[in-house]
Specification:
Layout lengths: L1 E5 L7 E5 L5 E4 L7 H6 L1 H16 L7 E2 L15 E4 L3 H10 L14 E4 L11 E3 L6 E2 L2 E7 L8 H5 L2 E8 L2 E2 L3 H7 L11 E2 L3 E2 L8 E2 L2 E2 L2 E6 L2 E4 L10 H8 L10 E3 L15 H12 L12 E7 L11 E7 L3
Parallel strand pairs: 5-18, 7-20
Antiparallel strand pairs: 1-2, 1-13, 2-3, 3-4, 5-6, 8-11, 9-10, 9-18, 10-12, 14-15, 16-17, 16-19, 19-20
């Protein structure tokens, strides 16, 4: 199944079922008003949601309308919790150089994760208001999962069974603010403004063979101001999503609607390019002795879309955002 959320004047928006081809949609009225409502009552509503999805795909759903991504909020405009990992070790090692930080203890055996703000997620085509270009504005292309209830102490294998949906993410970062916050020992706060999401959240079966071993085997195509930036694949994720969810739930329960991110998609070798500017800058430092690429300026745009190995568009839709001056 595919889900999207449209604005209706409430904090959580109106839940829409999206057709398999993403051309039409229908409100899930009478089953679940919002996506968080559906996730909290998943066992009770999954079957009727699936029936409505089947009717939509067969062009029999009453009230179906064309699907317009521009009208969508983030699939979850807010969630109980947003936790972001760094599951691609290649990216993490490069970032250690970027921030001139010592190696993270147990980096290859214990996932790294921070807790971000979950009260103000951005839609896929929403402008991104930020205060200063000097803060080092950077995009970060990621994949993520949305969980149902997760018990404390869950195993990594059992955690895979707690995953309800898969999402595509742009985890905005302010790189000039990151080093000080990392060195404080308390983690990110000001360096992480509101996170953005592609318009469609999907159940794992929508990925077919591209969902394997708790990993999204899709290439994330990223463009900056219309120019190719990279297309790293999620298949090189060192910690799979079951391991990330289990790590987050090691000492506490997770509520239905918790979102866990992969961290920036990153591939070894460099041929696939990057999903964030900071990674490209570090590669330039290594290969050319200095960073050549600057960070984003007001008016810049970033475009992200996952694609299957055969070139077909992925199921999440497109993130296409412009950075603007806050208050402008």
């Amino acid at each position: 199944m595919k889900f999207a959320t449209q604005a209706d004047g409430t904090l959580d928006g109106r839940l829409m079922i999206v057709s398999h081809d993403a051309r039409s949609a229908v409100a899930a009225a009478g089953i679940a008003h919002s996506l968080i409502d559906a996730l909290q009552r998943w066992d009770a509503v999954r079957a009727p949601l699936q029936a409505l999805s089947d009717e939509l795909d067969a062009s029999r759903a009453a009230g179906a309308v064309p699907f317009v991504a521009a009208r969508c909020l983030a699939p979850l405009p807010r969630s109980p919790q947003w936790l972001d990992g760094s599951a691609f070790l290649n990216h993490g090692r490069l970032m250690e150089r970027a921030f001139n930080s010592p190696p993270i203890p147990q980096f290859e055996t214990l996932p790294v994760m921070y807790q971000g703000a979950s009260d103000d997620f951005l839609g896929a085509q929403a402008d991104v208001p930020l205060r200063r270009e000097a803060d080092g504005i950077d995009f970060e292309g990621e994949f993520g999962v949305v969980t149902g209830p997760v018990p404390m102490g869950v195993s990594a294998d059992a955690a895979l069974g707690c995953i309800r949906l898969i999402v595509q993410i742009n985890d905005w970062s302010l790189r000039a603010l990151g080093p000080r916050e990392m060195q404080s020992g308390f983690g990110f706060l000001q360096a992480k403004p509101s996170t953005a999401f592609a318009p469609i959240a999907v159940t794992p079966d929508e990925l077919g063979n591209a969902w394997q071993s708790g990993r999204v085997h899709l290439a994330l195509h990223v463009q900056w101001n219309g120019q190719r930036f990279g297309e790293p694949n999620g298949n090189e994720m060192n910690f799979h999503f079951g391991e990330l969810v289990a790590h987050a739930a090691h000492t506490r329960r997770l509520s239905a609607g918790t979102i866990v991110g992969s961290g920036t998609v990153s591939n070894t070798g460099g041929a696939a390019g990057s999903a964030c500017i900071a990674e490209r800058r570090v590669i330039e430092m290594i290969e050319q002795g200095a960073a050549k690429t600057g960070f984003m300026r007001f008016g810049d745009r970033v475009h992200m879309q996952a694609k299957f190995a055969d070139g077909r568009d992925g199921p999440f839709g497109v993130i296409d955002q412009r950075v603007v001056a806050a208050g402008g």
